[in-house]
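Hi Q.,

Before the meeting this afternoon, I wanted you to have the glutamine prediction in hand. No need to reply - just skim if you have a minute. The sequence and ligand are here:
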Amino acid sequence: MIKTHTLGFPRIGENRELKFALESHWRGESSEEDLRATAHELRLKHWQAQIDSGLDFITVGDFSFYDQMADHIQLLGCEPARFEFKPEQSALQRYFTMTRGKSTEDHACKHAHETWALEMTKWFDTNYHYMVPEFTAATVFKAHTENLVEQIEQAKTLNHPIKVSLIGPLTFLFQGKSKQANFEQFDLLEQLLPVYGQIMAELKVHGIEWVQFDEPILGLDLPGNYLAAFERCYLQLKTSDLKILLATYFSSTQGHTSAVCKLPVDGLHIDCVRAEEDLPLVLDWLPNYKVLSLGLIDGRNVWKTDLQAALHQIAKSFEAGKGEVWVAPSCSLLHVPYRFTSDTAVNTEVLPWLAGAIEKLEELELIKQAAKAHLHGKTLSGALNTLWNEHQNTVRQRASSPLLNNAEVKGRLAALIPTADQRGSEFAIRQKLQRERFNLPAFPTTTIGSFPQTKNIRNLRSRFKKGEIDKTAYWQHISQEIRQAIEFQERIGLDVLVHGEAERNDMVEYFGEQLEGFTFSANGWVQSYGSRCVKPPILFGDVARPKAMTVDVARFAQSLSEKPVKGMLTGPVTILQWSFVRNDQPRATTALQIALAIRDEVADLEQAGIGIIQIDEPAYREGLPLRKAKWDEYLQWASKAFRISASPVRDDTQIHTHMCYSEFNDILPAIAAMDADVITIETSRSDMELLCGFGEFHYPNEIGPGVYDIHSPRVPLQNEIVRLIRKAAEVIPAENLWVNPDCGLKTRGWEETEAALAVMVSATQQLRGEL
Ligand code: GLN
Ligand code: ZN
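Predicted structure with the ligand bound:
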């Protein structure tokens, strides 16, 4: 028997209806009822799409007003105490306080009180952010199924089998955070399981047969206690006599695949795209009476599936004796756009190669029909056969398309000399030459690149894009912005200036738009967090740089000041990480191609007289594979790609890089291996803790630890910054320290930016006076 299903579906809506409904509700322009009505409509539409595509189940429980982990916090009744029940607040209001925070005026003591939101962090190695559950010894759980039951009742009106999707108890605990010293949230498991049990019982009452438990932590290097708990945990859940599909994805279950196959569940889902190597083992070890769900369609990327290859895996599963095979996307479709068909912006040759969520559902149906025919020793006939052939032709056409290939780029990469990723001299020599050239004071001050992206600037860009103003008028305005930014920085006395990035919409899109091998969609939105969506560029072919991308702007900005103005680029790893990239060659190859394009830009900037060039790599850390065993390989090519982009320059040209808040400690050698002359990092919120690692490691090059938090409009006090710089100087030699904010300032207003940077400069001057 063969069935199809999906682990989850994008909830933001084809035209981001949920985003707009949420934001209108948050502005107070629509009621909770309006918002609920939109949600109801969207869910019905998404379930209907699943039914129309022939899926055997519709999936319920994947919808969320903000984030699925946050939903589980309410479902399991473990909201942290600061979001306590207030009779005047609805559950949804409480939910939004938890996900977004709230400041309220307390009139009695005339103070603004803040209920800070839950922390947000990336969901495994995706660009989706989830709300982190908080645990203490006092945490208690209690089932609140109203919200889930409401959705089930809605789904039932469609008269189609339902599968409920929940986050598994161990993933829920593991992805949370203990907020109490010496307390391990794992100890809460015994209390948590009965509550999951109650939820199961409730689902049973509502006529549910199948529950999907997502346990993606099975793809991590799991601590022994979590691993050992799986059996006990699912044994306990099994008693409810609902059928359980255990879902793993994103990474191989290597090391514990056999244990996973033996768990007391009724079915197992594996990711055959990211963890193809698991399949033969699972075919061996999973008892044949259990359902095997094959994640054959890539839920993390946008390319059409080779259906023949998928069919082959299904056939193998039946040959291995599996009785019931389900076919699904590898993971939830949350991570891909709704639909590409009829997108007006994508390169028309590339468009047919793409599959969003809707197209992926259609692929499922084709695979199912073909597999059914195959089981009966037949082939597809009629309309289905035509569809199949068309689909496979498209897949083949992509594979052999000249559009993918640029012989020059391939040749250049193949012929790259081994020293192409090395600067002329080692850092100590470069440092000396750079000091002579730039003659900067102690604790040089700089910013990370962007200045406030005002409404004016955004309007200007969108008018230019729509063709309402011409290039000359556009450039006139932009150059005015740059002029003002330079004047401002000179006025307050920063040492190394930036042009402010007013001409850039987004740090990846800006470069992707100018590089060959990329295309962009009009509507390919993917949820990032809450109502925020991103539209990742689509990298389909060999990457080449037809002409300089930033040189004119950099030259102009530099002409306005005697002080160095940094050339500003995005690094190869970040461009790769934040795009949908081709799957027909290793990521490493794609990264190196991007690196060559950036390298040429770096060389051109130097040629144009730019002495300091910053290559941002905020996504360097997040590119790490989920399994430690694979880290080395990634770090090798990632640091090489960076060095290739950074190395064509003279010794006295200074290369900077920037990384946002990351866990740096376990990858310090790889950061040092990038060999940037200066790295600026986000540290202020960690109170310089993060910098200690760099100190202990004896990080060899110069560092600019962020001295104030740019995520808040609050203007720092001089003594706060002084204290942070002093703290930094305790762990890093003072002569290697730079002073800068945590990150770019594009989300800030000018008023607080001017004030904060002025304070930063005076704090630095105070310290220089003491030297
Ligand atoms: N140069 C970029 C900016 O300042 C860096 C942004 C980032 O680190 N994400 O906006
Ligand atoms: Zn940053």
